[in-house]
TrEMBL record, chains A, B:
Residues 1-70 form the HTH merR-type domain. One of its GO terms (molecular function) is DNA binding. Coiled coil: none annotated. This is MerR family transcriptional regulator. The lineage of its organism: Bacteria, Bacillati, Actinomycetota, Actinomycetes, Propionibacteriales. It holds the Pfam family MerR_1. Keywords: DNA-binding, Repressor, Transcription, Transcription regulation. The keyword DNA-binding applies. It comes from the Bacteria. The keyword Cytoplasm does not apply.
Length: 213, 213
C-alpha cells in the first residue's frame, strides 16, 4: 500500500508516519521510485504498536524505540522476550536510586531476584517517592501489592507462553498497555468497594485464580 | 525559609520553584518585601509531591495541577478523597473511547460501577489499544487482573482510611506513585517466576491477605 493508505489505516497523519520513518521507529518501505515506496501489514502493525505505546502506554518516543529494538531481537523464548522488554522499559537515567531499599523490600517477599536486576530501580524510586511525601509503605501493605502483582504477572507470562513463537516478543511488548489496563481496573475496584461499603460493611474477598493454573 | 533554602530542601533548582509559583502549582509565600517571600513546610511538602508525581508518577504538569486541585478541596472523607483524585486522573480529552467495551467488561466482573463513571474511559482505551495490536484479553485473563486489582485497591483504601482526616487527600493523591510501585513489583514478580520455572516447574501460589481484613 502507499503511504497515504498506510497512514489512513493506522489513524495517523501522513506527516507523523514520515516522521517515524525518518527517526527509524518505522522500518523503510520497498522503494518503487525515487519518491515513492510500498508498505505492507508489517508497517501497519508497527504503527499501531507505536501509537498504542504512545497514547495508552504513556511512553516517550525514546522509550518506544527501546521497546521496539527489544522486540526486534531474534527470540522465540518466553523468558528472553519478557526479560528484553522489561530491561528496555527501565529508563537509562535512573541510576541514582538507592537499590538497598528495594533489595531489602524484595528479600522480605522471599522472591529470587538478581541483586543487580534493573527492575529494582523503579521499585526503589517508587518507594523513595512515597517516602518523600510522608507515605511509608509498611511490610503488610507491600505484601498485598506484591501478591497482587504476583498473580497478574502469572497471567502476563501465560499470555506470552500461549502464543506462537514469532508473536511472543510483541505480546511481551504490550506490558505498558497491560499496566494501563491494571491501573484502570484498580480505580474501578476502588469505586466498587466504596459503593459496597456505603451499603454494607463487609466486602466479599474473591478467590484468586489464573489461567493455566 | 527563603526560596533558596526551599529549593535546596526540595532538591529542585530555584528557577523551577519560581516557575511552579508563577504557574500556580505552588501557592504563594508570605511576602516580606517587594521582591522577597517566606515559605514554610506546606510549600516544601507540596514541592515534594509535585516532584514525585512528575518524576515517578509520570504525570504531565497539567495533570498534576488537576490532582493538586482535587487534594485542596475540603474533605475529610475517604470515599470523597479517593473519588476526587480518581476523577482528576482521567484526562479530559479521552472522550472518544467506546465505553460499551468497558461497561461489558466490568459487568462480567460483577462490580457495582456507575455506567457513566469516568474510570471506564481508561479501561476502554487500554482494551482498545491491546486489541489494536492483536491482543484480545479473554475473560479469564481479565478476571485475574481484576482480582489482583481488587486486592490492591483494598490496601489503597485501607491506607487512606487509617490516616488522620487532614492527611486523607494527600494519601489518596499518591495513587500514581502506587501505580508505579505495583508496576515495578509486577516486573519483579515475572522475573522471580521465570527464575523459578527455570529450576522447578510448579510455582507456589501465595494466599492473598490484606491489612484490616
Amino acid at each position: 500500500m502507499r503511504i497515504s493508505k498506510l497512514s489512513e489505516s493506522a489513524g495517523l497523519p501522513v506527516g507523523t508516519v514520515k516522521f517515524y520513518l525518518r527517526s527509524g521507529l518505522l522500518h523503510a518501505g520497498r522503494a518503487t521510485s525515487a519518491t515513492q515506496a510500498q508498505y505492507d501489514d508489517s508497517h501497519l502493525a508497527r504503527l499501531r504498536l507505536i501509537r498504542a505505546l504512545l497514547e495508552v502506554g504513556g511512553l516517550a518516543l525514546a522509550d518506544i524505540q527501546r521497546v521496539l529494538d527489544a522486540i526486534d531481537l531474534p527470540t522465540d523464548d518466553t523468558a528472553r522476550s519478557v526479560a528484553l522488554v522489561h530491561s528496555a522499559l527501565v529508563p537509562g537515567d535512573d541510576c541514582d536510586a538507592d537499590l538497598a531499599t528495594s533489595r531489602e523490600a524484595v528479600s522480605g517477599l522471599g522472591w529470587s531476584i538478581d541483586p543487580e536486576s534493573t527492575a529494582l530501580i523503579p521499585l526503589a524510586r517508587a518507594l523513595e517517592a512515597l517516602a518523600s511525601v510522608g507515605v511509608e509503605v509498611p511490610p503488610e501493605r507491600l505484601r498485598v501489592y506484591a501478591d497482587s502483582a504476583f498473580h497478574a504477572a502469572r497471567a502476563d507470562l501465560h499470555a506470552v507462553e500461549e502464543v506462537a513463537a514469532e508473536d511472543k516478543a510483541v505480546v511481551a511488548g504490550t506490558a505498558p498497555l497491560v499496566d494501563a489496563l491494571i491501573i484502570s481496573l484498580r480505580r474501578l475496584a476502588a469505586e466498587h468497594q466504596l459503593a459496597q461499603s456505603a451499603q454494607q460493611p463487609a466486602v466479599p474477598v474473591p478467590r484468586l485464580t489464573f489461567p493455566g493454573a
